[in-house]
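Before the break, one more example. Copy the sequence into your notebook; we will annotate it together after we see the structure.
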Amino acid sequence: MAQASPGGDPTVRPSAATAAGRFDRFATRVATVVARAWFFLLCVALVVIWAPSYFLLHSLDTYQLIINTATTIVTFLLVALLQNTAHRSDAASQRKLNAIAEALADLMEANDDLDMPGHVAELREAVGLEQREGT
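Here is what the structure looks like once it is written out:
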């Protein structure tokens, strides 16, 4: 039987929630690092160092294999990490939009001068729509 997590979800074990939190923090740090100019310059420097290595290797296959393997591994790992940060950013934006829609609906309901019951209902229906459409 699963134990309740600190957030109250009984399906998530505390250790799983902690591991996810660590991964999220790690992914955020990596996204911050790879978005910097110096990281791009490091990548350019690696290509500049790799380019003349053909004269040391004397084999076109080995020469290409080195850069192809390195770039594939880095790309694969970065896509996974950056997808994590993008997903969390999208979820945060959606929560903010839902809060704005709720506040606007409350404001429209509180304003007695305007007769907008259909608009208020439409706003209330929009909150959480992304979750209902996703299932």
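Residues 120 and 132 are 19 Å apart (CA to CA). Helices lie at 14-34, 37-50, 54-57, 60-110, 117-126, 129-134. Try to locate both features in your own notes.
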